[in-house]
Design goal:
Elements lengths: L2 E3 H4 L11 H9 L4 E6 L7 E13 L5 E8 L23 E5 L9 E5 L4 E2 L3 E2 L3 E3 L2 E3 L2 E2 L36 H5 L5 E5 L10 H12 L22 E4 L10 E10 L9 H9 L7 H13 L4 E4 L7 E5 L5 E3 L5 E3 L5 E5 L7 E5 L3 E2 L12 E8 L1 H10 L5 H8 L6 H16 L2 E9 L11 E4 L2 H6 L5 H10 L3 E4 L4 E5 L10 H12 L19 H15 L3 E2 L5 E2 L3 H4 L24 E2 L4 H13 L5 E11 L18 H10 L2 E11 L16 H14 L4 E5 L5 E12 L5 E10 L1 H6 L7 E6 H7 L15 E10 L4 H12 L3 E10 L8 E10 L8 H19 L2 E2 L2
EC number: 6.1.1.20
GO molecular function: ATP binding; magnesium ion binding; phenylalanine-tRNA ligase activity; tRNA binding
Pfam families: B3_4, B5, FDX-ACB, tRNA_synthFbeta
Length: 869
C-alpha cells in the first residue's frame, strides 16, 4: 500500500491550508482511493535548537565519562531546573543543564534539544530527571532518537547542525527544530485497486487529489530537464521470441550512463527522510535515488555497476536450467517464461543480470566502490512481470508497478531525473549518449474508444450533461474529439492502460462527477419469493445441531498432504484424490479438502489448545474430489457462447464438489453442577446428531455397521437414506474416532464425529410434507424382542415391523441390543417398543393381537427374525 507524505504530495499539487492527513485521506476517498492508515508527526512537543555554552567532562567511577552541558535554548525556554549548588557558566546568560554521553560536539555548536514535555518516536516522553549528581533538564538528541536513522557518515553521536544529519541547516537558539528537520510530516497510507497502478506514485496521487479538490496540479514529469542526446550509448538488444510467450516482454529499454560518481557521497537528509516516511529503507545514494524517482514518478529504475557490465545488454527469455542469484542472496532456477536482462560476459547473453521488472542480480549490483553506473528505465509487459514475480514468489516494488502498467513515455524522463539527482549530490557526469531501444509511442496516438454522449446516463442511471462527460475525460488526461452521431472519440492517456473499453470511461465519469451524486435505490423484492427449499433445509440442519448444544465454526478448505496419513486413510481411499492448487496460499497446504473432518479436527485441536475442556463443534462447507490429473477443463473462446459440447466437457472436467455437514464432539457434554458430573459425549450421540440433522430436513437415516477410517472399527456406522423405490444411498458416516486419530489431534478420549452429504440428504427428503391429524384415541403399547443374525441391521427389522403392523403403527423405537450365550453364537436380540393407535376408535384386544401376529410374521419373512421367548 503506498504511503504518501503530505510535504512530498504538496510539491505536485496545492494542498489546502493546514491540511491534515485525515482531511487529505477524506479528499482522496472521494475519487476511489481508500484510506488504509494515517501516521501523525513522529515528534511532538518542545523540540528546539540549542547552543552549547559550556561543556564539562566528568569521569565516573564506572570508567565512563559524561558531559555536563549548559545549553542556551532561547529566552522562552531557558528555565534552569538544576540544583543551585552546581557550578554556573562563566556567562550569566540563562541556560539549561543537560547530561549527555556523546562526544562529537564542542562549545559553540548548535544542537537539537528535546525539552521536558517532548514525545519522541516510540512514545518516549522526555522529563527532567536527576542523574550523575545533576538534574538533566532535557536531552540533546541523535538522529536515531528522532527517527531519522543513523548518521549517513557513520559518525556516532548527536546531531550537530551544519554537518552530519542536518547538513546545511542552521538556526538560532529557541527555533523550532521539528519544522527545521521536517519531523512534522504526516503520512496517508492508501489502498490502490489493481487497475490504477499510476497511483503507486506521488505523481498519480497528486493528480487524483487535484481531481478531488480542484487544486492546481503540476505534472513532475514535465519539470524534468531532458537534454537532447545522441544515440549510441550502451548497446542493447531486444531478443524476445514473443510468439512463444504470447506477449512481447519488453517494448522499450532506455540505458543512460553516469561516470565519476563519488562512492562515498551520502544520500541527502531530505531524501532519506522521505524514503523512510514512504516505507523504504535508505541504503546508498545511487540506490536511494532510483527508489526516490520510482516513488515520485512511478517508473521503476535499476542501476548497474558499469564496470561489471559487458555490452551488449540483451533482453531475452531464460534458457532451461539457467540460474540467478538475486539481490536478496537467493539462488533461483529460472523458467523459460522468465524475461531476463543479460550481458555478454563469456559469450552473447551468457550472464544473467536480473529478472526483468522483478529484481536484479548480485553480480552487477551497486556497491560501496561503484563510481560508474548504467541506469535502466524500461517498459516491461505487465503479464510477463506478474508471472515471474509469482513464479519465484518474489514481490518487489518494481513488480508491483509493472504488473499494473507503467507509463511508456516515462523511461527517458525518469532516467534523466535520476542521473541529475545523482550528479547533484554525488558528483560525476551524465553521458551525452543515450540508448533508447524500441522507442516510445507518440503522446495521444493510442486507440480511440467510441463513446456515445448518453452512454454514461444509460449505464449509471443519472443524467450527465455533455459538458460533464467531456470535462471528466479531459481532466484525467484523455484526448476527446467529436465523432459521428453524438459520439466522442476518446483516446486514453499513456499512464492509464486500464482504460480499454467504453465502460471504463463511464466509470471514470461517475467517479469524477462524484459517487455521492448516484442515488441509493433499493430494488423491490418480487412477491411470492423467499428462501429456496435447499436454503431452508440447510438452515434447518444447522439449527438442529445448534439446538443440540453444538457451536458452528468455519475452517479454511486447504489441507496438507500429511492429513491423509493422520486420518489413517487406506492407500486406495478415494478421499486421497484431492484437488491440487497451482498457486496455494501456503506451501504447507496445497490441496483442497476432500472431507470436512480434514479441517474440522484441526479446529477442535486448536480450541482445546486455547483452554477449552471439551469440544462440540460443527460446520457446513464444501468438499472437492479430483477427477484425476488428466481431467482438464477446456477454455472456451470469449467471442461467442460455448457450444453445449464445450460446456459439457468443461463441467465433466471440474472436481466433484458437494456441500457437507460435519460435527466433532468429545469430552463433557455440558458444565458440571452440584448434581455431579455430566456424561461425556459418545458414539451414540454422533448417530443421534446425524438423525437430528436429517430429520430437520425431512429425511430419515438408516445405520449399518462399517469399518472406515478415521473411525473406530467397532463403533462406526454407515448412514443411508431410503429412496422412494426402496433403494438406499450412502450419505455419510458417524461414530467414535479411532484412538490413534484421537491421539494424533490431542482430543478427549472417545471423541466422536459425523459427516453427511447434506445435498443428497435434502434431495432424498419429500418436497411436500403432509400434515398428520392429531389422534385422540388411547395408545396401545407392545414390546417385541427378535433374535436375528448378527449382520442384520436394526433398520431392516424396524422396517419389517412397520410393514407388519400397518397403519396402526404410530412409532417404533429400538431400546435394547443384546448378545450372549443365551442368544447363541452369531445371533443378537433387538428389542423394540411399538406404539399402536387407531384413528377410528379405541383398539380392541382382537385388533392388537392381530397386529402382533402380523408383526411377527413380517419380521420372520423379511429377515428371518424369531420372537425371543
Amino acid at each position: 500500500m503506498p504511503r504518501i507524505p503530505l510535504t512530498w504530495l504538496a510539491e505536485h499539487t496545492a494542498l489546502a491550508p493546514a491540511a491534515s492527513a485525515q482531511q487529505v485521506a477524506t479528499d482522496l476517498s472521494r475519487v476511489g482511493l481508500e484510506e488504509e492508515a494515517l501516521f501523525g508527526a513522529q515528534v511532538t512537543g518542545p523540540l528546539v535548537v540549542g547552543r552549547v555554552l559550556e561543556l564539562v567532562k566528568e569521569p565516573q567511577k564506572n570508567g565512563k565519562t559524561i558531559n555536563w552541558v549548559r545549553v542556551d535554548v532561547g529566552p522562552e525556554h531557558n528555565e534552569d531546573a538544576d540544583d543551585p549548588k552546581d557550578p554556573q557558566p562563566g556567562e550569566e546568560r540563562p541556560s539549561r543543564g543537560i547530561i549527555c554521553g556523546a562526544h562529537n560536539f564542542v562549545e559553540g555548536d548548535l544542537v537539537v534539544v528535546s525539552l521536558p514535555g517532548t514525545v519522541l518516536p516510540g512514545d518516549f516522553a522526555i522529563a527532567a530527571r536527576k542523574t550523575y549528581g545533576h538534574v538533566s533538564d532535557g536531552m540533546i538528541c541523535s538522529g536515531d532518537e528522532l527517527g531519522l536513522g543513523p548518521d549517513p557518515s557513520g559518525e556516532d553521536g548527536i546531531i550537530v547542525l551544519g554537518r552530519g544529519h542536518a547538513e546545511g541547516l542552521t538556526g538560532e537558539p529557541g527555533d523550532d527544530a521539528i519544522a527545521l528537520l521536517g519531523l512534522a510530516d504526516e503520512v496517508v497510507e492508501i489502498n490502490v485497486t489493481p487497475d490504477r497502478g499510476y497511483c503507486f506514485s506521488m505523481r498519480g496521487v497528486a493528480r487524483e487529489y487535484s481531481h478531488a479538490t480542484g487544486a492546481s496540479y503540476t505534472d513532475p514529469a514535465t519539470t524534468v530537464d531532458v537534454p537532447p542526446a545522441e544515440a549510441g550509448g550502451v548497446a542493447v538488444q531486444l531478443h524476445d521470441d514473443a510468439p512463444l510467450h504470447e506477449v512481447e516482454g519488453c517494448s522499450r529499454f532506455v540505458a543512460l550512463e553516469v561516470h565519476g560518481v563519488d562512492p562515498s557521497a551520502q544520500t541527502p537528509r531530505w531524501m532519506a527522510r522521505r524514503l523512510t516516511l514512504a516505507g523504504m529503507r535508505p541504503i546508498s545514494l545511487i540506490v536511494d535515488v532510483t527508489n526516490y524517482v520510482m516513488l515520485d514518478l512511478g517508473q521503476p529504475l535499476h542501476a548497474y555497476d558499469a564496470d561489471r557490465v559487458v555490452a551488449p545488454i540483451v533482453v531475452r527469455r531464460a534458457a532451461p536450467g539457467e540460474k540467478l542469484t538475486t539481490l536478496d542472496d537467493a539462488t533461483r532456477t529460472l523458467d523459460p517464461g522468465d524475461l531476463l536482462i543479460t550481458d555478454s560476459e563469456g559469450g552473447e547473453g551468457a550472464r544473467v543480470l536480473g529478472i526483468a521488472g522483478v529484481m536484479g542480480g548480485e553480480s552487477t549490483e551497486v556497491s560501496a566502490t561503484t563510481a560508474n553506473i548504467v541506469l535502466e528505465a524500461a517498459t516491461f509487459h505487465s503479464i510477463s512481470v506478474a508471472r515471474s514475480a509469482r513464479r519465484h514468489r518474489l514481490p518487489s516494488e518494481a513488480s508491483k508497478r509493472f504488473e499494473r502498467g507503467v507509463d511508456p513515455l516515462l523511461p527517458r524522463v525518469a532516467a534523466y531525473r535520476a542521473a541529475q539527482l545523482i550528479t547533484e549530490y554525488g558528483g560525476g557526469q551524465v553521458s551525452e549518449r543515450i540508448t533508447d531501444e524500441g522507442g516510445a509511442p507518440a503522446a495521444g496516438t493510442g486507440t480511440a474508444i467510441s463513446l456515445p454522449i448518453g452512454a454514461a446516463e444509460r449505464v449509471v442511471g443519472i443524467a450527465y450533461t455533455p459538458q460533464q462527460v467531456r470535462e471528466s475525460l479531459e481532466k484525467i488526461g484523455c484526448v476527446v474529439e467529436d465523432g459521428p452521431e453524438d459520439t466522442l472519440a476518446v483516446t486514453p492517456p499513456s499512464w492509464r492502460p486500464d482504460l480499454a473499453i467504453r465502460e471504463d470511461l463511464i466509470e471514470e465519469i461517475a467517479r469524477l462527477v462524484g459517487y455521492a451524486e448516484i442515488p441509493s435505490v433499493l430494488p423491490t423484492a418480487p412477491g411470492g419469493r423467499g428462501l429456496t427449499r435447499a436454503q431452508q433445509s440447510r438452515r434447518a440442519a444447522n439449527r438442529a445441531l445448534a439446538e443440540a448444544g453444538l457451536v458452528e465454526v468455519t475452517s479454511y478448505p486447504f489441507v496438507g498432504e500429511g492429513i491423509f496419513d493422520a486420518l489413517h486413510y487406506e492407500a486406495e481411499d478415494g478421499r486421497r484424490n484431492a484437488v491440487r492448487l497451482l498457486n496455494p496460499l501456503s506451501d504447507d497446504e496445497p490441496l483442497m479438502r476432500s472431507s470436512l473432518l480434514q479441517t474440522l479436527l484441526p479446529v477442535a485441536r486448536r480450541n482445546l489448545g486455547r483452554g477449552e475442556e471439551s469440544v462440540a463443534i460443527f460446520q457446513l462447507g464444501t468438499t472437492s474430489i479430483s477427477r484425476g490429473e488428466n481431467a482438464r477443463a477446456r477454455v472456451p473462446a470469449a467471442a461467442q457462447r460455448p457450444s453445449d459440447e464445450d460446456l459439457e466437457a468443461t463441467l465433466s472436467a471440474l472436481p466433484v464438489q458437494t456441500r457437507a455437514l460435519a460435527a466433532v464432539v468429545g469430552g463433557a457434554s455440558g458444565p458440571d453442577s452440584w448434581q455431579g458430573e455430566v456424561p461425556p459425549w459418545g458414539w451414540t450421540d454422533a448417530f443421534d446428531l446425524a438423525r437430528r440433522a436429517a430429520a430437520a430436513v425431512g429425511a430419515r437415516l438408516e445405520v449399518r455397521q462399517i469399518e472406515l477410517a478415521p473411525f473406530h472399527p467397532g463403533r462406526a456406522g454407515e448412514l443411508r437414506v431410503l429412496a422412494a423405490d426402496g433403494t438406499s444411498t450412502v450419505v455419510g458416516h458417524a461414530g467414535e474416532l479411532h484412538p490413534a486419530v484421537v491421539a494424533q489431534f490431542d482430543l478427549p478420549a472417545r471423541t466422536s464425529a459425523l459427516e453427511l452429504d447434506l445435498e443428497t440428504v435434502i434431495d432424498s427428503a419429500p418436497a411436500v410434507v403432509a400434515a398428520e391429524p392429531v389422534l385422540t384415541y388411547p395408545v396401545a403399547k407392545e414390546d417385541f424382542a427378535f433374535v436375528v443374525d448378527e449382520d442384520v441391521p436394526a433398520a431392516a427389522v424396524e422396517a419389517a415391523i412397520v410393514v407388519g403392523v400397518g397403519d396402526l403403527a404410530e412409532s417404533v423405537h429400538l431400546f435394547d441390543v443384546f448378545t450372549g450365550e443365551q442368544i447363541g453364537e452369531g445371533k443378537k436380540s433387538l428389542a423394540f417398543a411399538v406404539r399402536l393407535r387407531s384413528a377410528e376408535g379405541t383398539l380392541t384386544a382382537e385388533q392388537i393381537g392381530a397386529a402382533r401376529t402380523r408383526c411377527i410374521a413380517a419380521v420372520d419373512a423379511a429377515v428371518g427374525g424369531v420372537l425371543r421367548a
